[in-house]
Amino acid sequence: MKIALMMENSQAGKNAMVAAELNTVAGGLGHDVFNVGMSDENDHHLTYIHLGIMASILLNSKAVDFVVTGCGTGQGALMSSNMHPGVVCGYCLEPSDAFLFNQINNGNAISLAFAKGFGWAGELNVRYIFEKAFTGNRGEGYPIERAAPQQANAAILNNVKAAVSKDVLEGLRSIDQELVKTAVGGARFQECFFANCQVPEIAEYVNSLLK
């Protein structure tokens, strides 16, 4: 699985620590990790709004399979991500959130709070969240006797979102193009995207913004 980590301006100072924990857990499980957001406070400037755009482009182009995002509270990155078609983002404050999202909702992104409640042993909480997010079989339900209705409801929710969403490219073209241009402007994002994008139309669109 290819996993993208993206962090915005307010929490960029924690990127090295979060990336190290994600690489330890996910890399140790054989997944590829791409650090595509801000690596420090002086890096290519991003807000949680840009993170949602980045998640949409990476997931809908199949450049990555999963996104780890977040902001100070995790709420902005969550809302920004879930606005886009093809992105199903869960809110994880503790490891049990990641486990339940993994088993019940089986989405393709998680949003973490990197400031709220992030104190002593914060790096351990992040590590354990990643362990629960990326270990075991996904979508099996919890408790197990509720597996069938949970799997059915998760599929229905995805179908509802697909029905009410615009086509991904139509949606991206409908918003402020400067927002999208900034979102795709980072060198590490471009490296991950162009090396792994499987949808030529999305690649062409991103290329048009970078000319």
What does the secondary structure layout of this molecule look like, with pairings?
Elements: E1 2-5, H1 15-28, E2 32-35, H2 48-60, E3 66-71, H3 75-82, E4 89-92, H4 95-105, E5 109-113, H5 122-134, H6 147-164, H7 168-174, H8 177-183, H9 187-196, H10 200-210
Parallel strand pairs: 1-2, 1-3, 3-5, 4-5
Helix pairs in contact: 1-5, 2-3, 2-8, 4-5
Which shape, going by the Cα principal axes? Answer: globular
Largest beta sheet: strand ordering: 2-1-3-5-4
Structural class assignment? alpha/beta
* Poorly predicted tracts of residues: none
CATH architecture: 3-Layer(aba) Sandwich
Distance between the termini: 31 Å
The level-1 CATH class? Alpha Beta
Query: Order of SSEs, N→C?
Result: EHEHEHEHEHHHHHH
Assembly level: single chain
Helix content: 40-55%
What integer is the average pLDDT?
Answer: 96
What percentage of the residues does DSSP assign to strands (E)?
5-15%
CATH topology: Ribose 5-phosphate Isomerase B, Chain: A
Task: Please tally the helical runs, counting DSSP H or I stretches of 4 or more residues.
Answer: 10
Count of structural domains = 1
The tally of strands reads 5
